[in-house]
Structures
1.
Amino acid sequence: MTSTLGQEARTSPPASRPDRRASLTFKNKLGRLDVKYSPYLYVAPFFVLFAVVGLFPLVYTFVVSLNDWNLLSGPGEWVGFGNFAKELHDELFWNSLFNTISIFLLSSVPQIIAATFIAVVLDQNLRARTFWRMGVLIPYVVTPVAVALIFSNMFSPDGGLVNHLLALVGLDPIAWKLDTLPSHLAIASMVNFRWTGYNALILLAAMQAVPRDLYESAELDGAGSVRRFFSITLPSIRPTMIFVILTSTIGGLQIFTEPRLYDAASVTGGGAHRQFQTTVLYLWEMAFQRQNFGRAAAIAWILFLIIVMFGVLNFLISRRIASADTRITSRQAKRRLEAARADTAKTDAVKTDTR
Amino acid sequence: MNHSRRTKVVSAIAGAASFALLAAGCSSGGTGSSSSTSSSGPVTLTVTTFGSMGLDGLYKSYEAAHPGITIKANNIDTGGNARTDAFTKIAAGSGLADVLAVEEGWLGAIQNVSDQFNNLKDYGADAIKDRWVPWKLAQATDKSGRIIGYGTDIGPMGLCYNSKLLKAAGLPSDRAEVATLLGGTSATWDKYFAVGKDYQKKTGKAWFDQSGFIWNSMVNQLPEGYYTSAGKLNVTENPELKVRWTQLAAANAAGLSAKQTQWDWNKGKSFTDGKFATFMCPGWMLGVVQGQVKTAGGDAAGATAGWDFADVFPGGAANWGGSFLTVPKQSKHPKEAAALAAWLTDKDQEVAAFKAQGPFPSVVAAQTDPSLAAATGVSAFFNSAPVSTILSKRAEGVKAQVKGPDDSTIQDQVFGPSAIALDQGKSGTQTWNDAMKLLDQLVVNK
C-alpha cells in the first residue's frame, strides 16, 4: 500500500516547475549531509576540549619527562628515559607508592562496603526518605580543604578530639601525625567521610532499578533479608558496582588534598619523614619544591601507567566474575532450550500424525 | 518554522545583548594592556608579602599620596609557602604580583633566574643604593651587576625568654642578668645548653621549643654555611656542621627540647603554656611570637604573657633571614612598582614596619633613627624591651653568609626531618647519617 502511494508521488512531478526540483535536490543534498555528519559535529566540542585540555597535556608531559627540565630556568638537555630510570630507582618514589596503595586500600575497601549497606538501608521504606538520601550527600558537598583542616585538628596529637576520646577510654594517645599507619588511617577516614555518601547514592540508584517482584517472589519462597541481599541485590547491581570500584580506584590512587593539608605546618609535603606522602604529593614536591620538572613528569607518567594497569586488572577480574555467571545461565538456558525444542518436536510430530 | 513576532523580537534582543557582553569582555582586556606604557589611567599594583613584614599599614598612606594608584596586598602565612607560590608562578609565566617579597633563603634560586626580574637600576636604583647595609645590597645584585631587589629587613638574632618561667626556676629573669647568665658577649652554645640543663633539673621542663630553629641559628652563624663563599656545596666538607650537630644531639639527650612542631606550636598554646623557656629570635620573629600568643588567646598587647628579649646570643653575632622586594618582569607596571618598592624600603617606612611587627631595618639611616627606640607595638609585648637598641647591637659584626641555590631545600628538607628525629629521641649519629642520605637524594644527585 505504501508502495503505491510512493509511485503516485513519483508519477506526478511538476514538470512545469523545473526550478523547484533543482532547489529541492540541493536541499536534499544538504539534508543528507546533515543526517550523515551532524552527529559528529554534535560530539566534536567534547573531543576538541578533551584534545586541548586532556590529550595535549598528556603528550606534552611525556615530552617534558624526556628532558632535564628545571622549573625556573626551563628545558635543559635531552635525557631520553633517564628520568624514568632514576624514578624507578628512587627510594622516595617507592615509599610514596607504598603510602598511596596503603591509603587506597584503607579507604576504598571500607568505603564501598559501607556504601553498599547504606544504600540498602536507604532503599527501605523510611520516613522522610528524601531527607536521608540528601543528608548522606552532605559530606561530599563540604569542600575537601575544610574537611582536611578539621580532621587534621581532630587528629592532633596534643589536644585533638580523637586522642582525648582515647584517653577517656583509658588508652594511650597515638601519634597520629608521626607514625605511618595511624596517619594512613586518619587520611583514609577523611577520604571515606567524603566519598561514602556519594558512592551510596550511586549504588542506591542501581538498587532501585531492581524489580521488586524478584524480592517478593524470593520472600514467598522463604528467603531471609540477608539471603535476598546476597543473592538478588548484589548480582543485580554488579555493573554499577564495577563502576564504583573503578572510579574509587582511580581516585584513591591520586589522593593529594588530604595528605597535603593533614600536616599543614610541615614543609615537606607528607610529613617530615614522608610517612603519608602519596605519589601525587611527591610529584608536586619534585616539581615545585625541588624544581625538577623532568622527573616530576616521569613520575606522572609512571603513575598514569600504574592506574591504567589497576583499571585493566579490575576490568578483567570483574569480567571473569560476570562471565562465569552468564556461562552458568547460558548453560542452564541451553538445557532448557533443548528441552523445550524436544517438547515442541514431539508435539509437532503428534500434530502431523493426527492431521 | 513559524515564530510569533514576539519570539522574534525577544531572540533579537537576546542575541544583541550576548554580542554586546562578548564585545565588552574582549575589549576590557585591550584597555588593560594599553595602560602599561602610559601611567595616565588608574593603576592597580599587587603586592605579595609573607610572615610579619610589617608593611600592611603602609599601603593606605602610599595610596593617599599617589592618587590613581590602588594597592592590592596579599600576605602569605609562612616563607616556605611563599616560596612555593613564587616558584609556581615564575614557572607558569604569569600570576606574580607587581612587587614580590623574596626571602634570602631562596634568593639563591631566584638569582639563577634573575633575568626574569627587572633591573631596578633602570628605575632609579643607583640613586638610592647607598641607603642599605653594603652586604644587603650585594646579596640583591646578580652576577651581571643588575640590582634585582630592595632590602627590607635583616635578621640579627637575640634571645627571647620567658621571665616568669625563669623566675619560677630560681634563675635571674631581668634582661641584663639573663645576658650575663648566658655569658654576655662571649656567650657560647655550651653555656646556653648548660644553663638549660640547670633549668631542666630545677623544673623538669624543656629549655627550647624544637631542634630545628636551634640548628638554623647555629648554621647561620658560621662564616660559611651550606655553601662556600664561592657558591659550592659545602655540607659534607664542612666539619663545623658535624661538631654543632653533635652538640645539639647532646642537648636533646638531656631533655632540653619541647618537641614542638615548628610554625604550629599547638596553635600558639605552647607559648602560653610554659612548655619552653627560651626561643630563637631574629628581628622578624618578634612579630611571630606576638602573633602566636594572640592566636592562643593570650595577652598580645601587654606583657603579662611573660616574654622578654635579651641582648645576648650564644655564639655571638648571627643573622637569620631578611627579605627583599623585587619587581618581576611579569609586572605590567614596572615603573610604578619600582617606585612603590623604593618607597616601602625607605627609612621612614622601614622604621614604621619595625614599630608594627619588629623586622629590623636593613637601611642604615633607619637603624640609627632615634624614633626606633620608642617602646611601641612589639616593644610593649616584650616587657618594654628596647628592642631596636638590642637589635642594633646584635647586628654589629654580622657578616652575610653566601646562600646557594638549594639552601632552603637543605635547611627544610635535608636537615629538617633529622632535627625532628633528634627531638623524637633518635641518636645524633643516626640522624646525621639520615641527613647525609637525604642530601644525596635531594641535592647532590638531583
Note: Chain A has a mean pLDDT of 86.
2.
Amino acid sequence: MRIHEYLEIVEEGDGRGQIRCVRCGHAFCEAGENYKAHALYRERDPNQVPGRGLASGEQPFHVFQEYICPGCGTLLEVDTYVPGFEGDSPVLWDIQVAPKAPARRKAGKTGKA
Amino acid sequence: MGRPRPGTTRLDPVRYEIFRHRLFHILEEGRLAMKMVSGSPVVVEGGETMCALYASDGTPILTAAGILLHCTGAMDFIRKAIEWFEEDPGIHDGDSFFFNDPYIGGQHLPDQMVVKPVFYQGKRIAWTGSMMHTPETGGIEPGGMSPSAREIFHEGVRIRGLKIVEGGKFRKDVFQTIVQQTRDPHLVGLDIKARIAATNVCARRYLELAEKFGAPFVAEASRRIIEDSEKMSRARLRELPDGTWRSRLYADTIGNREQPVLVQCTLTKRADAITFDYTGSSPQVDGSVNATLSGCWGDLFVVLASQLFWDVPWNGGMFAPVRLVAPEGSVMNCTFPAATGVTTNSVGCLITAVAHECIAKLLYVAGRLEDVNSSWRGPASTPIFGGINQYGGPCIGVILDAFGAGIGATPARDGVDTGGNMMNPTSCISDVEILELNLPILYLARRNGADTQGYGMYCGGMGPEMVYMIYGTQVMHMGLVGLGKKTPPNWGMFGGYPGAPQEAMFVRHSDIREWFAQSRCPRTYDDMKQLQGEHIYPSASTRVSPLSEYDVLLGRIGAGGGYGDPLDREPDRVVRDVRRHALSRGVAEAIFGVVLDPQTGALDAAATKARREALRAERLREGRRLR
C-alpha cells in the first residue's frame, strides 16, 4: 500500500508490514512505526536555504528538518520545527496508517515515482 | 422509494431537486443583495459574504458563502437568540437581530450578522441569516482587527443580540448606537443595511417556496437536505483508510509582539467518523491571535468544505461525523475576555492549514490523488489603514492582495501562481484602481514574487509582491495583521518545501521623488534597500503607527507549498521557470540541481546530472541517523 510519494507498506512473509522506499527498496521499519525515526536527518537554518531566509538578516524562530532516504538520498519530508514547546516531540509522526486499510483506488496521475 | 415515516411527507425526487437548487440560488441572490448595498471593498471585491437558511431550531439547512469561515458561526447566534429572547422580548414576525460576539459565533468582532425568523401562517418555520466582515469596529486601532489588543474590550463594539428591525420597522436608535461607535459610521451602516437586505430577500423567497410547494413539503425537504449531507459525508469517510495523521505549524506573533505559538492537529479517522484533535497546542496568549471555539469550527470548516467534503451540501449534516477537540484555554478555544481580532490572519489560518496537511496525506493513502494538494498560502500579513484620505475625509481600509496568494502543488502539477485563498473561494485580489481611488496610496509594482514558490518536484504557486507608497495625505496610520515572517506560513509535502517568508519592508521619509525624476521605480527588496530613508522590517503583525506621504512599503503574500523532492523536478521545467523570472539561477542550481549555460541560459544536461548526484551525495553525507 502506497502511503507517501516515495514510501509504501509491503507485507513480509510473516504477514507483518514494512515501510520501504519505492525508489530504492530501502527498508525503514515496521508499518506501525514512524519512518522518520529511521531516516537520515538533516537540520537546516532557513537563512542558509536560498529563498527562505529573511531580507532583513534577522534569525527566524524555526529550523527546517529534512528527512532523507538512507538508500537513495531522496528527500522524503521537510518539516518546520521550533524548539522549546513542552511535550512537543521534535520528530513529528505524521503518517500512522491503521492495519488492514482498504485497498488503494487508482486515480489520477501519480507523478514521478 | 419506501413508505414515508410517520409524520413526514413523501418527497417527489424531481420536486425535491428543484427545491434544493432553488434554495441555493435564493441564498446566492441574498449574497448579491449584500454586495449591491454594501460599499465595503471587503464585500464588493473580496466577496466576504454569507447567507444561510436554518431550521426553526437553528440547524443549518443550506449555506451559500463567499467566505467559508462564516458558514458555521451563524447557527450559534440563532440558538442563543432562541435561548435568550424567546420569552423576553420575544421573537416575532418582522424582527431581525444583530450579533457580533465571537464568543457566540463568527471569528472576531468584524464578523457581524443579522438573523431573521421566517413566519408562515403565524408559525416560525425557519431562520435566515447573513454575515459579512465589516471593516471597522471602533477598537483601539482602525480596521476592526487591532494587533495591540490584549482583551476583547480593546477591540470595539460587541453586541450579543439587539433587535435592529422590530415588527418590520427599522430601529434607527439601535442603528445609530452601533455605527456611531466606529470610525466610519457610513461604511459600517451600509454593511448593516446590506445584511438586513439580504435576510429580507432570502425570507421573501423562502416564503414563496412555502406557498408554491406547501409548508409540509418545505419542512420535509429541508430536513432531507441535512440528512443527505450526513449520508454523503459518512460515505466519503467509509471510502478512506483508517489511521492517524499529524501536523504542526507555528505562528510567529501573538498580535502585539513576536513570540512563537504552536498549533498542532491529530486527525484520527475510524470507519465513518473523523476527529480533529488540537490537544498540545499553545495555551491562549496575551494578544489578539486567539480563536474562540466558534472560530475554530469555522477554520476547520474551511478545509472540510474545500478539501474533504467539497461535493457535500454545506449544512449541519456535513458536521455530524466530525468531532472537534479544542482544549479550553488553548489558543484555539480561548476563554473570555481574550482578544481575537487577528485570529483570521493568524492562528485561525493555521487551524485550517494543519488540518489540511492531515487530510491531504489521508487522501493520498486513499488514492484520491486528484484531491491531494500541498499547502495553500496559509495566512497573510495584511496591511490595515486608517486616517484622512486624499479628499480630506476619513478613510479606513484593508488591502486584500492576500486573496490572490499561491496555491499548493499537487502530485501531478504545479500550484497556481497568485491563485486564490482557501477560506474564500470566490474572492478577488484587490483592484488597484479601486484601492487608489479609495485610499491615499499609489501602487508602484505588483507581481508574482520570484523564488517565493514552495520548491518541489511540483512547485507551489508563487505569491504576489506589492510595492506602494503613501500619496495625497499627511495623516495616515498603518499596521499589519498576520504571521509568516519568522516561521513559515505553510507546509510542503513529501519532500517539497513551504513557501517563502512573508516579510514586509517600509522605507520612511524616502527619496522616492528623486527616483521618479530619474524614471526609476522600486520593485524588489533590493530596490527598496537602495532607497534613501529609514529602513524598517516590521513584524508580521504590527501595531498601527503613523506614516508620511512618500513613505514606501513592500509587502509579500505567501506562496503555495511544494510537492515531492525538488531534485525530481524535470530540468526543462526549471529552465522555463528561470526564463520567465519565476526562479533565480542561484535557486535553480542550489535547490533543484539544474545548471544553465551562463551565456545562452540553455540547460547544461551533463552539469545538471553531476550537480544532482552531488546534492544527493551531500544529503547522505550530512544526514545523521536518529537511532
Note: DSSP finds no helices and eight strands in chain A.
